[in-house]
Amino acid sequence: MSGPLLDADRLTKAYGRTIALRGVSLTVSPGEAVGLLGPNGAGKTTTVKILTGLVRPSSGTARLFGHPATDPAARTRLGYLPELFRFPDWMTGAQVVSFHAELAGVSRPDRAARVRAVLEEVGLGARGRDRVSAYSKGMSQRLGLAQAIVGRPELLLLDEPTSALDPVGRRDVRELVSSLKADGVAVVLNSHLLSEVERVCDRVVVIDKGHVKFSGTLDQLTGEGPSLHVTVGRTDEELVPALAEFGRATVSGNDVQVTLGPPWDDVPDEAAEQVAGVVTNGPWGLRGLAVSRASLEDAFVSMVSRGDT
Amino acid sequence: MRLPIVRATLGEAFGRRIVLWGWVSSVLLVALFAVGFVFLYDQISDDESLAATAQRVVIGGVLTILGLYVGSFLSAFLSMMLAAGSVSADVDSGVLQAVVVRPLPRWRWYLERWAGLVTMSVVYVVVLTLAVLLVAHLVSGYQPVSIAALLALLALQVTFLVTVGMLLSCRLSSVATGVVLFLYFGIAWLGGFIGWIGTVAEKTELGTIGTVVSLLAPSDELWKAASSYALPQGLPVGLGTDGSLGLPFLSTLEPSPWFIGWALLLTAALLALGMRAFTRRDL
Question: With an 8 Å Cβ cutoff, is B105 touching chain A?
Fold first, then answer.
């Protein structure tokens, strides 16, 4: 499909007198990972629910794969993990995933193998035969992910996918989402965990009070690209020109801040290796080097606390 | 697709042991009925006189219909309980959100869920009714007028209640649905009782009230229609020609085909309304 997989145009939603959305527009292209950010009550979940056809917008349109979101045909290639969900606790984990595989159209001959593979993928391979009632919150979250991906979706909507997970579980989910993204799956990630969004998403959309306050790359949101913090044994006037090819360098005592410019800002780790080589081969002596990025949290908090739209 | 929601609904009934406990309580009911039936039937004179024969037929009939009445009440209660949380509980718990996002039209989820609940309710009422009739037959040689018509009307009664319950469950919480549904069932019973008083006391106004209530809430009238087919074959001529045997919970009159048609139409309309309401609601 050449156009966007997801295209929401000026969505509004009113619940009685409460207006949850005031004209949210959003597009997601194939293979893209988009983070939805916003404070509690901003309208993120309402947006996701409209995109999945769970909620009808008061006005505006939401289309998936070219179909209206309320049309079942729009959801044939969609995977969705709701924010608040439960699975029938009398079923086993494998039965839940198999049930969703059937609903997603996975053929009967392929189903058992697909269910096993997906349970392995989310780390529940050994617990597939246990009843859901015996699952911890983290395991239920993994099961939620398994049902979301069992139909091999091209677009994955994840609403707070790591809210119940421990750090190891979060890392696993991050790696899973990154691997799906690498396979060309487009991802919309609604999360309060900014670090997660930062690591997974190409683009962020900040929603506040029902409005889109920002839509763009992380660098655009934070205002500047990644930088390197270099600590050297000594400095001289040759140091800044030596690092100029990597971006803008400023020296303060034995500390050098290098704000990476193109093309290094896209590959900060590679830039760090190169800078380390330049400094080590010169007379300055490398004492320390760290990659840093302007805090997404700072930019986000600043944006949503400004109150302007 | 092979009716996944129907299978899930039936699987849930087994998984949650609803089926198990439903049958345990039913076996107890049938056992109790058998003991009572045997005890009371033994009290009747077993001579071959016409009066004694008539007494055996009538007493056997009344006892059997009482057993069926209790069975019908239990089946109605079960169907109402099943329907009360059929939509709202799944919405509130978050079970439904991941399911309806699948490429499955919402009306189809609703229809399959309805079919699953109706299947459970109908199987329950059919088996329970046949068990009561079997006991009555073994003890007294009891033969109802028409088992098929009796079962069909009882099945329609529970189907109607499931349909109303699911429609309410689209809009109300599980508890509110249960309360409203039980009140609705009670109003239907009360309407039937008022109608019976109107018939016996020859008060046209009361009869009209009973008729109107039975059209709006036909569950009690469906039971009465079913009971007319549960009457014993060979009922003495002239008995109950006024529409009753002097009892408010059964009818000796053959039900009007118009009423049966109306009950079917109402059930279909409420099912369609439920599908529409579920398709349009935000989840």
Answer: yes
ipTM of the complex: 0.81
From residue B80, alpha-carbon distances to B67, B118, B123, B147 in Å are 20, 11, 15, 24
Q: Do A103 and B4 touch (CB under 8 A)?
A: yes
CATH architecture group of domain A1-53+155-222: 3-Layer(aba) Sandwich (3.40)
What is the C-alpha to C-alpha distance for residues A171 and A192, in angstroms, rounded to an integer? 15
Q: What is the pLDDT of residues B113-131, one digit of tens each?
A: 999 999 999 999 999 999 9
| Number of domains composing chain B | 1
Residue A157 reports pLDDT greater than 90: yes
Q: Please check the confidence at residue A308 and state whether its pLDDT lies above 50.
A: no
Shortest distance between the Cα of B73 and any Cα of chain A, in A, equals 28
pLDDT in tens, B213-240: 989 999 999 999 998 888 877 665 445 5
| A245-282 pLDDT per residue, tens | 888 888 888 888 888 888 887 788 888 999 999 999 88
Nearest residue to A197 (alpha-carbon basis) of A208, A181, A184: A181
Helix (H, G, I), strand (E, B) or coil at A128: coil
Q: Which domain holds residue B262?
A: 4-280
- On the CB side of A14, how many CA atoms lie within 13 Å of its CA? 4
Question: One fold for both A1-53+155-222 and A224-293?
Answer: no
Consecutive H or E run containing A259: strand A255-260
Binned at pLDDT 50, 70 and 90, residue B152 comes out as: very high
Long-range contact pairs involving B15-18 (C-beta distance under 8 Å, separation at least 24): B15/A88, B15/A90, B15/A91, B16/A90, B18/B82, B18/B120
* Chain A residues near any Cβ of chain B (below 8 Å): 49, 52-56, 72-73, 75-76, 78, 80-82, 84-88, 90-91, 99-100, 102-105, 144, 147-148, 151
Mark yes or no for CB contact B12/A100 under 8 Å. no
pLDDT digits (tens, 9 = 90+) for B40-59: 877 776 666 777 777 777 77
Test the A interface: residue of B20, B95, B99, B101 with most A CBs within 10 Å: B101
- Which residues of A are less than 8 Å from B97 in CB distance? 54, 80, 82, 84-85
Domains of chain A, residue spans: 1-53+155-222, 78-152, 224-293
Interchain pair B94, A86: CB under 8 A: yes
- What CATH number has the domain spanning A224-293? 3.30.70.1150
